[in-house]
Amino acid sequence: MQIIQRYDIPHADITTTVTETGTTASAWSDATTYAAGDEAIRNNRIYVSAVDSNLDNDPATDDQTNLAAKWILKAFTIPFRCFDGTLSSKTTDDGPVTITIANASGQNGLLVFGMVGTSLTITGDDASDPATEVYSKSITLSAREVNNWYQWFFDPFGEAVSRVAVTDIPDNVATLELVFAGATVEIGEIILGRVRQIGSTLHDGTVSKVISLTRVDFNAYGEPTVVPAPTRVETTYKVHITKDRMQAAYDLLAKLSGQVVGAIGSPNRQTTIQTGFLSLDEIPEDLPNDYITTLTLRGVI
């Protein structure tokens, strides 16, 4: 069981080849007076003015939890939607798509969700020598690649890969480059951070479930009415932690409880690769030298 302590990547460290096509709004200006309903872009986010005569109110510093907020966050711009913390809004463009993350030193874990494409290639350069490549990995995303007649008739079709977990990025990588190939590319979410080893995942007791938020009702004539809504995934991990490791693991889990983290139950099981709000459910004290602990990731991806 591995937890990825999420790194909040500054948008200034991200460059992308994706073009913005989702809005006609221009960059926010402190010299422009906005009417209610006007849109403006600030820090790669699209905001909608909630009031008339909106002058010199910075959307980036407006408290979105305040009912009197002058700006309402509508969405991230398309190139940055893969960093907005949700899977339902995706970065999309014609392939190939290249995303570069600078100042990534010390972040050795990468999770990518909601991918559509043919392949993902990840490379990293040396912090002390940017001309030297110290990491390279290529991952096939498409369901099947056929190179000859034998493969066409005899190789199994398999399934497409929509999420991947990478935990072997060297600490000396300064800049990561992600290249998504394909005629059309979709990227749901990218999580970069530090991998923390917790214990051993027990598949007997680890459960994933998909929760639909779509509401189904019936009218007076018995006809169904459907209000579509996103789904969310919750995974409860059953983890074996030795007594020697428990103190450090407990301190880390208590610190990260309630925060959005990444989790890898098994790199070979996509259902156990998740990101969501962590909760530490149970720590039974009935074993002399071991703990069988349950953790839950609730509902982001």
Walk me through what this model shows.
- By secondary structure, the chain is mainly β.
- The protein has three domains: about 1-20 and about 80-195, Sandwich (Jelly Rolls), CATH 2.60.120; about 35-75, Seminal Fluid Protein  PDC-109 (Domain B) (Ribbon), CATH 2.10.10; about 200-300, no CATH class.
- It contains two helices and 23 strands.
- A hairpin with a 6-residue loop joins strand 11 and strand 12 (about 135-140).
- It is globular and about 65 Å long.
- The model has no long low-confidence stretch (mean pLDDT about 90).
Describe the main β-sheet briefly.
9 strands, antiparallel
Number of domains: 3
Helix and strand pattern: EEEEEEEEEEEEHEEEEEEEEHEEE
CATH top level label of the largest domain: Mainly Beta
CATH architecture level-2 label of the largest domain: Sandwich
Outline the low-pLDDT stretches: none
Q: Biggest sheet, strands in spatial order?
A: 13-10-16-1-21-22-23-20-17
